[in-house]
Amino acid sequence: MRSLTSLWRSLTLLLALMLAGHALAEVPHRSAKPAYAEEQTILQTEKDTPESGFLSTASGKVHVDRHYLGQYGSTEGTVILQRGGNTWRLLRNGPIAMAAGFLLLVTPLLLLGFYLGVGPVRTTEQPAGRRLERFNRWQRWVHWATAYSFLALALTGLIILFGKNVLLPWMGHGIFYWVAMISKVIHNFVGPLFILCSIIMFVTFVRNNIFRRWDWQWIKQGGGLVSHKHIPAGYFNAGEKLWFWGGVVLLGLIMSVTGLVLDFVNFGQTRYVQQIANYLHLIGATLYMVAAMGHIYIGTVGTPGAYQAMKDGTVDANWAKAHHELWYDEITHTTPPTSPVPQRRRHE
């Protein structure tokens, strides 16, 4: 929920900047970060020159455009100097890259600390020896196709964002050139595949990710991850549903739309639009990777037996009863309790 709140605040801030209107436009290029002496000269020349409204077709200078949102089409090829490019570079390589790097480094450490301090969620009962099908072959293929394409995008995206600072110094320009070029090609071509896989995943799993009244109990108890209480859940628990709607759907949609804007640049979008898309793409991708780390943790060492379900498609009957009791009752035709009371689970 904190990740979603942070994402919403970031989106609100960017939207406010984009739609600030005439107030920002009255002082030409006030917030631009000049990179060259020519820009300094132009800034001095235009210092007291008022501009048209932010969304006006007269806004911006065709040959020195900074923030025009309209469709230049082929004529934007005549834009020689775009001062917003340096503003974008400073934000991308500065605050955004630093925040992304911090989150991506701290999250695994927090998960390790949680594992050592709290421990995994375990069942007290011995395996029943009877296997229940949890995911069919199609569901597993869709999941792993989406997961592998995401991992390819995450790895190549990290190289594109941090490669010059992390890899170039010890690789050298010759080797890093090929690493960066191959990463860029893979990122551009795997991106549309990831979008397709995400759409198929949504269609495949959406029916079982609708929130039910009992999910609120799971959320209030934090899934029993800390208290080790038994919280009855359906086919997917509330945590998995939050990952589905917040990660796969919301963050996946942000990455997909902005990724297409950046990937296919021949549809008339201006450089300013691409810069805003890049901001959102980096923010969405960072939050997606952070959430994915939590998902991977819960689906592996955090909940022993969960990985087996997606690997082979089946789970032990007692595991199903312990972690997804309402689903177990449904498929075994057992009468579910009318008001399930969380039971203290022994921590092993």
From TrEMBL:
<keyword id="KW-0479">Metal-binding</keyword>
<dbReference type="GO" id="GO:0005886">
    <property type="term" value="C:plasma membrane"/>
</dbReference>
<feature type="transmembrane region" description="Helical">
    <location>
        <begin position="96"/>
        <end position="121"/>
    </location>
</feature>
<keyword id="KW-0249">Electron transport</keyword>
<dbReference type="GO" id="GO:0009326">
    <property type="term" value="C:formate dehydrogenase complex"/>
</dbReference>
<feature type="transmembrane region" description="Helical">
    <location>
        <begin position="279"/>
        <end position="298"/>
    </location>
</feature>
<dbReference type="GO" id="GO:0022904">
    <property type="term" value="P:respiratory electron transport chain"/>
</dbReference>
<keyword id="KW-0472">Membrane</keyword>
<dbReference type="GO" id="GO:0009055">
    <property type="term" value="F:electron transfer activity"/>
</dbReference>
<dbReference type="InterPro" id="IPR016174">
    <property type="entry name" value="Di-haem_cyt_TM"/>
</dbReference>
<keyword id="KW-0732">Signal</keyword>
<dbReference type="GO" id="GO:0015944">
    <property type="term" value="P:formate oxidation"/>
</dbReference>
<feature type="domain" description="Cytochrome b561 bacterial/Ni-hydrogenase">
    <location>
        <begin position="134"/>
        <end position="310"/>
    </location>
</feature>
<feature type="signal peptide">
    <location>
        <begin position="1"/>
        <end position="25"/>
    </location>
</feature>
<keyword id="KW-1133">Transmembrane helix</keyword>
<keyword id="KW-0408">Iron</keyword>
<dbReference type="GO" id="GO:0046872">
    <property type="term" value="F:metal ion binding"/>
</dbReference>
<dbReference type="InterPro" id="IPR011577">
    <property type="entry name" value="Cyt_b561_bac/Ni-Hgenase"/>
</dbReference>
<keyword id="KW-0813">Transport</keyword>
<dbReference type="GO" id="GO:0036397">
    <property type="term" value="F:formate dehydrogenase (quinone) activity"/>
</dbReference>
<feature type="transmembrane region" description="Helical">
    <location>
        <begin position="242"/>
        <end position="267"/>
    </location>
</feature>
<dbReference type="Pfam" id="PF01292">
    <property type="entry name" value="Ni_hydr_CYTB"/>
</dbReference>
<comment type="similarity">
    <text>Belongs to the formate dehydrogenase gamma subunit family.</text>
</comment>
<keyword id="KW-1003">Cell membrane</keyword>
<feature type="transmembrane region" description="Helical">
    <location>
        <begin position="175"/>
        <end position="206"/>
    </location>
</feature>
<dbReference type="GO" id="GO:0008863">
    <property type="term" value="F:formate dehydrogenase (NAD+) activity"/>
</dbReference>
<keyword id="KW-0812">Transmembrane</keyword>
<protein>
    <submittedName>
        <fullName>Formate dehydrogenase subunit gamma</fullName>
    </submittedName>
</protein>
<feature type="transmembrane region" description="Helical">
    <location>
        <begin position="141"/>
        <end position="163"/>
    </location>
</feature>
<dbReference type="InterPro" id="IPR051817">
    <property type="entry name" value="FDH_cytochrome_b556_subunit"/>
</dbReference>
<keyword id="KW-0349">Heme</keyword>
<dbReference type="InterPro" id="IPR006471">
    <property type="entry name" value="Formate_DH_gsu"/>
</dbReference>
<dbReference type="GO" id="GO:0009061">
    <property type="term" value="P:anaerobic respiration"/>
</dbReference>
